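Comment thread on ticket #2218

A.B. wrote:
> Attaching the input chain for the structure job we discussed in standup.
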Amino acid sequence: MSDPRETLTALAADIDARLQRLDADEQSLRLDRADGTADDEHDPEGSTLSGEWQRVEALRRAALTERDEVSAALARLAAGEYGRCANCGRPIGEARLEARPMATLCIACADVGIATR
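C.D. wrote:
> Ran it. Output below, let me know if you need it in another format.
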């Protein structure tokens, strides 16, 4: 298994870069919205500014949630709790952690849909 700290740090950097791009997209939408001549509500071929704004905001919320998960995983790593199931306490399999480094449940607990404490 690769070094979880490196993996999580790289994920955090990717998410931060994504958030910067989304911030730039939001700023661009603000400028477009401020343009009094933008009549996108009647453009049958394009999406509306409102629709784009909602899309950017949804992507931003998802990225922030993912960033929180990465931060929590880094905190578990620092506390020596990384890789342990939050429900049963057993180790989370390496393959699962490779696929989802922020995982808090082992496969068995995740399969039965147990919510973390």
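A.B. wrote:
> Thanks. Noting for the ticket: Helices lie at 4-34, 49-78, 94-99, 107-111.
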